[in-house]
Amino acid sequence: MIAVTYTGAGGSEVVTVGERPDPVPGDHEVLVRATHAGLNPADLAQRAGHYPAPAGSPQDIPGLEVSGRVVACGAAVTAWREGDRVFGIVGGGGLADTVVAHERHLARVPDALDDRDAAAVPEAFVTAHDAIFSRAALSMGETLLVNGATGGVGTAAVQLGVAIGARVLANARAHEDALVQLGAEPVALADAAGVDVVIELIGAQNLTGSLEALAPLGRIIVVGTGAGADTDISLRALMSKRATVMGTVLRARPLEQKAAAVQAFAHQVVPLLANGRVKPLIDRVFPAAQANEAFDHLAAPGKLGKVLIEFAG
């Protein structure tokens, strides 16, 4: 297989692309052949040595998601067969053209999505759905604030909020017209008010402003900390609003919890993808040989949607 690998912790100098032996699926795993793979901020954190893959996942091949066709099944697999189009999440190894995934961490790709669009879906939409619905319990008629609304998870969160009938406020530095087309209201954090749920994709710098923007009983769900992880907040403000601040990750969860997140996505989000109510946004696609340039682009501001790597053939 062709894979992006890290030779250690650091920057571009640790990234290589080359041949590796094909992985072998375990009893409850499937082998997926991929034409495209999605990049995520967690891949940058892993490259820097701050976010190692969980035990049992490849330690030197990054990548948190997979999309493609099943080419082999483990002995105990019952959910899939060869030729099925699937997408889902993995603990590592996703930046390759051949990926092993647990059968319960996958969902069926709807026919409405081609291979490129499907590759932009799993991590972004599973994360957004799990954060704002399963964890923060956003409901119809409430107001959602998306801090960092133009990335993969941000654009997914905007669309999912709109799809269930929430008012969606989008805090982002660029692409206001595109966010309006998705159904959001662009807003500066200082101008947001009456917010029921905040999904934080940027970092600690926004927490005080988000708390001020909350309505009583509001909830803040922290998903990203790229712009900083440490902050001070007023406990009196937290108490007076009877607010909740929570955090979430997918990668480090136990197998059953990740399976539950993927299956909730399959039941509630995949139908919206199938009928075009929501869609993945792709910022740029890089050939696998340009993985370093892809990572640099991912780290730079101004993107709208996902950054993908394409594998030849």
Core attributes:
single chain; 313 residues; alpha/beta; Quinone Oxidoreductase, Chain A, domain 1; Rossmann fold; 2 domains; 6-stranded parallel beta sheet; 5-stranded antiparallel beta sheet; 16 strands; 27% helix
Outline the secondary-structure elements.
Blueprint: E1 2-6, E2 15-19, E3 29-33, E4 36-38, H1 41-47, E5 65-73, E6 85-89, E7 98-102, E8 106-108, H2 115-119, H3 122-135, E9 143-147, H4 152-163, E10 167-171, H5 176-181, E11 185-186, E12 195-200, H6 207-213, E13 214-222, H7 235-240, E14 244-247, H8 255-268, H9 270-274, E15 282-287, H10 291-299, E16 306-310
Parallel strand pairs: 9-10, 9-12, 10-11, 12-13, 13-14, 15-16
Antiparallel strand pairs: 1-2, 3-5, 3-7, 4-16, 5-6, 6-8
Query: What overall form do the CA principal axes indicate?
Result: globular
Full CATH superfamily name of the largest domain? Medium-chain alcohol dehydrogenases, catalytic domain
Helical content band: 25-40%
Q: What's the helix count?
A: 10
Domain module tally:
2
What's the CATH class of the largest domain, please? Answer: Alpha Beta
Q: In the CATH hierarchy, what is the architecture of the largest domain at level 2? A: Alpha-Beta Complex
Structural class: alpha/beta
Radius of gyration: 19 Å
Q: Note the gap between the termini.
A: 12 Å
Task: Give the tally of β-strands.
Answer: 16
Order of SSEs: EEEEHEEEEHHEHEHEEHEHEHHEHE
Q: Mean pLDDT across all residues, rounded?
A: 96
- Strands of the widest sheet, in order across it, are 11-10-9-12-13-14
Beta-strand portion reads 25-35%
Low-confidence stretches: none
User: Mind summarizing the main beta sheet?
Assistant: 6 strands, parallel
Query: Per CATH, what is the topology of the largest domain?
Result: Quinone Oxidoreductase, Chain A, domain 1
